Amino acid sequence: MSCRLDSTFQMKNVFLGVVVCALSSAPALFAQKEQVFLGQITQCTCAGQSEHATMPDHGETVMRCAAPCANGAIKYVLADTKNKVAYQFDRQDFSKAFAAQNVLVIGSLDQSTGTIHVNNILPDLPPKIKRAKTISIVCDDCPRGMAKAKAAAFEELTAWKRFMIVSDPRNADLIFLFSANPYLGDYVTRDGPDTRVVHVQTAYMNVIDPRNGISLWGDSERVGSWFIASATKDLIDELREWMEVDVSPAERQLFLKRNRIIKAAADTGK
Length: 270
What we know:
Blueprint: E1 3-5, E2 19-20, E3 35-46, E4 63-65, E5 74-80, E6 85-89, H1 92-96, E7 102-110, E8 115-123, H2 127-131, E9 134-139, H3 148-160, E10 164-165, E11 174-179, E12 202-208, E13 215-222, H4 228-244, H5 249-259, H6 263-266
Parallel strand pairs: 2-4, 4-6, 6-8, 9-10, 9-11
Antiparallel strand pairs: 1-3, 3-5, 3-7, 5-6, 7-8, 11-12, 12-13
C-alpha cells in the first residue's frame, strides 16, 4: 500500500516532499504523554498494494509514514520535514480546517499506529516573525495605567535578548504595538495615533509588519488598569513560548500548559 502527498497542498515558499507509506511491523506501544508536534498539514492519497509509490521529483524529500492509510482514501497528515516522518490524526475534521498550513499540534502519539490523538491545533508563527532581528515598541495612545506598557515591554524584551530594540519604527523588522483597544490594521494608513475612546481594561499586543500594517500575531489580556505592566510581560512571554517551542523544553512545557484543550470538551458537538 503506497501513499503520497497531494502537490496542490504545497504552500508558497514552503516545499514539502512525497510521503511514502508502508505497513509497520513494530510492536504495539502505549501512547506517549502529551507533547507538541511541528509540521505542515497536507493531503495523503493512498493507492492499492499493486501500485508502487512514485519516486519524488528533483529536490523533494522522501519521508516514511508511521502507518498506512486506507486504500483509496484521502487523509490529512502532519508532514514533519525536520524528522522526515508523517503522522496521521485521530480527528480528520479538526485537521482539515488547517490544510496546507504550518502548525503546532498538541496531542499524544500512539506509536503502534503512528496516530496523533489531537487536543489542539494552532497555526505556527509567520516566518517573518521568526526571522526578525530588530523591533520597535509602540504604545498606541496609552493614557493613565496603559502608559506602563511600554516600559514593561522594554524591560521584558531586554531580558529576553532575542531582538535588538530600535527607537524608529521605520527602521525595525517588526513593530510591537501595545494598546487598550483592538488593533484595526491601520497602523501605516491612519494619520496620527488611534482616536478612539480609551477604557483601560484590556491590554492588547500586536506584532505588526511595518511595511504594510498587517498584524502577524496578537493576543490580549483583560486585567484592569492596575495590572497593565504584568499583562504586557505575560503577552511577551506568550510570544516567546511560540517562538521557542521547538528549541526550549521549558518554553515547550509553558506552551502546552497555556494552549492545551481537554479532548472531551473539544469533541462536544462533533
